[in-house]
Amino acid sequence: MRTHILFLYNPIPIRKFFVMIGLLFSITSFAQSPGLYNKLSPNLLTKLNKLEAGKKVNLVITINGTEIPSILKQYVPTSKKIHSIASISFFELNVSANELNSLLKSCPEIVFVEDGTRKPKEELQVQNLDLSLNKINMVHRYFPQWNGNGVTISIKENKPDTTDIDFKGRFLSTNLSSVTVSTHASIMATMISGAGNSWHLGKGAAWGSRISSSDFSSLLPDDAASYQQYAISVQNHSYGVGIENYYGSDAAAYDASAISNPSLLHIFSSGNSGTSTSSNGIYTGIAGLANLTGSFKMAKNILTVGATDSFNVIANLSSKGPAYDGRVKPELVAFGEDGSSGAAALVSGVSLLLQQQYKQLNGVLPANSLVKAILLNSADDAGNAGIDYSSGYGSLHALNAIKTFQAGRFISGSVANSGIQTFSISIPSGIKKVKATLVWTDPPATPNASKALVNDLDMELINTGTGETWKPWVLNSFPHIDSLKLPATRKRDSLNNTEQITIDNPLAGNYQIKVIGYNVAGSSQNFHIAYQFDSIDIFDWNYPTRNDFIFSANRNTIRWSSSFNTGTGVLEYTTDYGANWQLINNSINLSAGFYQWPAPSIIKEAMFRMSVGTIQFLSDTFTISQRTITGVGFNCPDSFLIYWNKLQSTNTYKIYKLGDKFLQPLISTTDSFVVLVKNLNPSLHYALAPVIGNSEGMKSYTFNYTTQGVECYIRAFLASLQNNTAELLLSLGTLYNINKVILEKYDGKNFVSIQELNAFSNLQINFTDASLKKGLNIYRVKLELTGGKTIYSSAETIYYFSGSDFIVFPNPVRQNQPLSILTDDSFIPVTLQVMNIYGQKLFELTINDYLKIMQPGKLSKGIYLFRFLKEGEKERIIKVFIQ
């Protein structure tokens, strides 16, 4: 009978079935107790099969109850409770195979046993961030009030850099955080909730939300009380443990967590093993499918997210479904070049926007099943037509999701066993597609269950005028590559707790959505439905909006959405507000949705126009712009000077300061520099943006003026011994108001002048002194300013760390200038890893002296992370801008 049920729900090829049986019964002690192995994870069974006699293993044991059974204490008196949820508890144990066998026989409270050595690994990072593919930039443009304010994200992995200015004033410190700070966590936090304070590409999806951190050393969810205490409503999980194809205790725990916290949505990356093959479960040996990286990703009440590239093509490395029992996984995809971490982060950010929107309209957070239904229903098709095991229900479409809430196109309901609930909707004329998605939060299944679904609901869509009925789309889950790649068919779904129905070109009229409680344990099952209507002959510009920037003299990807049946359009642009239009391409493929445009080398306001037949569609007015290069001229006790190189055709610049959380406008000026008084301007961080026509252009990098290596006029004064001659280099921040530069040398009693300059045009001045005396030679520079004020450099070069262990300056630095790295003596030697902003290591070097000069040419323009590592010390990360 057990074998019959196994084949009913999970058909297994005969060869695989007997291989599995042989593996299970090769463990003699468990073979003597048929059924005990059902409580062991497949990975643990494999490990026990290879274990030497008498050797002990670390385990995580799940039991029914909140206290450890006495029989368990008898065998393992040092057992440690690590987690509990509802009436289920988790304990760490260290036992031999024989002890485990005895425990399973004598302790019926044991529900499941898992390998205790499983460790999470951060998934790979993305190469770049593009919020336009998933229409997040359009939400920022049309619904600026939805920015995540008032809702909180938890990032379960290591801790992000809480000193990053993109998180200023919004990081929530809790006792859940790891003590380890990682670049990966900082990147995930930036993509979800970055404020864009550092630069506009540091702006995340929910840039106003609170950010918290939770240690992923435990693969189980946090306590329900912790989520509630810190008001956490989304938790992002961008990590994996390797391919696992079973429903473990961790999956059951996450399903239970979603029920205990009905507004909490767990979002997981699918993994980056998309080209790998599973070695366990019924999909063993099927290349490129069923390779999700963790049994916790088999949970039903979570969202598992795969990755696409910037053109909505499924990333090759993105892990694919199905789940171990044939369910649709991943349920959603989003932009995540070379990794699903970033894809999960973007979905987490958009989930926060939906929660904020619903909360502000209704006073409470939405149910997690409602947010999930809206995300899946609003998605764009990706990969193969319809749902599939690579893209799930499609690619994230943030704007459609927000509009679903705005239009009220969602339904809540509940059904009992054999019960029916119906809802009426009216489909207008001119609709190209109607789509409806049913989602419910299903009770946890028993670990190692052959099928995870507990409560089975069914949805149907009925045209009440004609009686025609549509069932949901269902994939073939038979464990063969040909079957798994078949397109979905309409039938009753008995595996998923998500169901979706679509109709192309529906007749206008009245329809009925019917939900049936096919098999419901308990009194009833709550559910949510989201639906949308896609109209014909619609064209929308997706990028750029008025909030976006086109890079001058660069290739830019512009995007649109079109439901026209017409194949081509004519694309043009204007830089004089429509007086004249310049042709870009007269045969644009509308269905492609994007075009790569090499923008001219100009600084202008512009618009695009797409002509479809006789209909013309204008974009927002945007700017073709470049980033302004900035510098610090001096940092004196009472004031400091900021300067910049003016862009062509621009006169006015806006200066921004960093406020409590975000950049705030300070002043406007037509100069190329500004002197700010310190007691009136306490902020340390500043940026500036050119005014281009009636718009604001691209901001500069935001910089801390106190860490640019510039003191009061003097950026650096360096001395070195070259061929018995002192080579001295003076680097100035500005020539503003300097009348004379004097090099002085200490004669044992006083500093005396040895060289004077009355005419100079460069910010770097070289001196030499061949008259060296034995012992210490001490130099300084004296500046005489207009008005009689005198400024001295430090004697030789004295480096003050101001509470930091490392200083990298100048920062930003021009690409053709050297970069100085100062290291506190207590940290020498130290390892420096240079990584791009997406966490990819470019090179590594060892620093053995307090001053390291990095010559130009090693780094191109962009943002980099300098990571300093020393054994026994916490890692330090400094963000460096090359301009």
Structure annotation, total helices: 14
Which CATH class of the largest domain is shown? Alpha Beta
CATH architecture of the largest domain: 3-Layer(aba) Sandwich
N-end to C-end Cα span: 70 Å
- How many domains, as an integer? 7
Percent of residues in beta strands? 35-45%
**Unreliable spans:** 1-34
Helical content stands at 10-25%
What is CATH's topology name of the largest domain?
Answer: Rossmann fold
Describe the strand arrangement of the main beta sheet, using strand numbers. Answer: 7-6-8-10-11-12
CATH homologous superfamily heading of the largest domain = Peptidase S8/S53 domain
Average pLDDT score: 89
How would you sum up the global shape? globular
Structural class by SSE content: alpha+beta
C-alpha Rg (nearest Å): 32 Å
Count of strand segments: 53
Report the biggest beta sheet as strand number plus sense, adding barrel if it closes.
6 strands, parallel
Question: Features of this protein?
Answer:
alpha+beta; Alpha-Beta Plaits; Rossmann fold; Jelly Rolls; 7 domains; 6-stranded parallel beta sheet; 6-stranded mixed beta sheet; 53 strands; 36% strand
Describe the structure.
- This protein has 883 residues and is an alpha+beta fold.
- It is built from 14 helices and 53 strands.
- The chain folds into seven domains: 2-115, Alpha-Beta Plaits, CATH 3.30.70; 121-407, Rossmann fold, CATH 3.40.50; 410-535, Sandwich (Jelly Rolls); 539-624, Immunoglobulin-like; 627-707, Sandwich (Immunoglobulin-like), CATH 2.60.40.10; 714-792, Immunoglobulins (Immunoglobulin-like); 806-882, Sandwich (Immunoglobulin-like), CATH 2.60.40.
- It has a six-stranded parallel β-sheet. Strands 24, 26, 27, 29, 30 and 31 form a six-stranded mixed β-sheet that branches.
- A hairpin with a 2-residue loop joins strand 2 (80-85) and strand 3.
- The protein is globular and about 100 Å long.
- The chain starts with a helix and ends with a strand.
